[in-house]
Amino acid sequence: MSDLLTITDLELWTHIGVSSEERSSEQRLLVTVEMALNTKAAAKADDVTKSINYADVTEDLKKLALTERKTIERFAEDATQLILKKYKPKNVTITVKKFSIPGTRHASLTLLRP
Fold first, then answer.
1. Is 1 exposed, middle or buried (0-12, 13-18, 19+ CB in 10 A)?
2. What is the pLDDT of residue 100?
């Protein structure tokens, strides 16, 4: 059985878009991350080093947003791979919301990676 550590709607600003014109100015993304892990050891010891520190994940995602990309697919995949390699959860689910289509609340992509 796994526990879920969730970061909900982390606001990131990045240069993203298919066209160079769209990438010329920063755009807002909201990123939600769910990481499956076992938190028993951290809870028992009351020690975050025995878990995944969500503040560290947040800082890594902010750094990732400094690099320009064309698609939310690339951003989501890069974020997923970073989290899997560095923090080693059992799996990670990432949802990226982008606010670029008039008349819609947002476009979003959700990835689930084991």
1. exposed
2. 85
Predicted confidence (pLDDT) per residue in 5-54, tens digit: 999 999 999 999 999 999 999 999 999 999 999 999 999 999 999 999 99
29 in Cβ contact with 71 (< 8 Å): no
Q: Where are the domains of the chain?
A: 3-113
Number of other CB atoms surrounding residue 61 within 10 Å: 21
In the chain, what's the furthest Cα-to-Cα distance?
A: 52
For 3-113, CATH gives 3.30.1130.10
Give burial (CB, 10 Å; 0-12/13-18/19+) of 92: buried
Catalytic residues: 98
The Cα 31–Cα 7 span in angstroms is 8
Q: Where are the beta strands (DSSP E) in 38-98?
A: 91-98
